[in-house]
Design a protein that fits this description.
single chain; 198 residues; two-stranded antiparallel ribbon; 11 helices; elongated
Length: 198
């Protein structure tokens, strides 16, 4: 049998037994998963330039598929869990801290504070006294209204100022800086379900 004949035979056999071959491959992968992953990782590391070139070429030829793959992955519980871990992790905190210390970060913060001040002035919010703030903290046992942990507290507007909420007694709860920053301008029910979903 010549090389061409062998190739044609293999293609025909594979086409006729695709389900059987796929099942065998899956079974083998499940039985040797860690070994296969280690082998693939070592090969990719040894052939990094080839992998980068091949990946770049595939991405250029399949722009629609990339977005579809990302959308499918982003909808999985694994992706949501990964994003939640990153949002609550040290890596993100350091990344945000670096950005806020940069010139661009300082400008962003100044602009945000100016917009907030403008909205408060336009809404003519009555504000809140120190005694009222202490009363609210006492009512919540000096714990965060969201995660219930006892930490240094900040004032959080239940209905965010950017969504028309007022800076007044009945729209303010104590929140730790982590929850307050995470909630930001989100609607409470949507943010709470996203952050504390089981």
């Amino acid at each position: 049998m010549t090389k061409e004949e062998r190739s044609a035979y293999n293609k025909a056999y594979r086409a006729a037994n695709l389900d059987k071959i796929t099942a065998q491959q899956r079974q083998y992968y499940r039985a040797h998963r860690s070994q296969k992953l280690a082998t693939d990782k070592a090969w990719a590391k040894a052939n990094a330039e080839y992998v980068r070139h091949h990946k770049r070429r595939w991405e250029q030829n399949n722009p629609g598929k990339i977005q579809a793959i990302r959308n499918r992955y982003n909808a999985t519980p694994q992706a949501k869990s990964s994003r939640r871990r990153y949002a609550q992790g040290e890596k993100r905190r350091l990344s945000v801290a670096r950005y806020m210390a940069s010139e661009k970060g300082k400008v962003t913060k100044a602009n945000a504070q100016a917009r907030r001040k403008s909205r408060l002035s336009a809404a003519q919010s009555p504000g809140m006294t120190l005694a009222q703030w202490q009363e609210i903290c006492t009512a919540f046992n000096h714990a965060c209204a969201y995660c219930l942990e006892v930490k240094p507290l900040t004032r959080d507007h239940v209905i965010p100022i950017c969504r028309g909420g007022l800076d007044q007694y009945d729209n303010i709860v104590p929140a730790c800086s982590t929850c307050n920053s995470s909630k930001s301008g989100s609607i409470l029910a949507v943010w709470y379900g996203r952050r504390f979903a089981a």
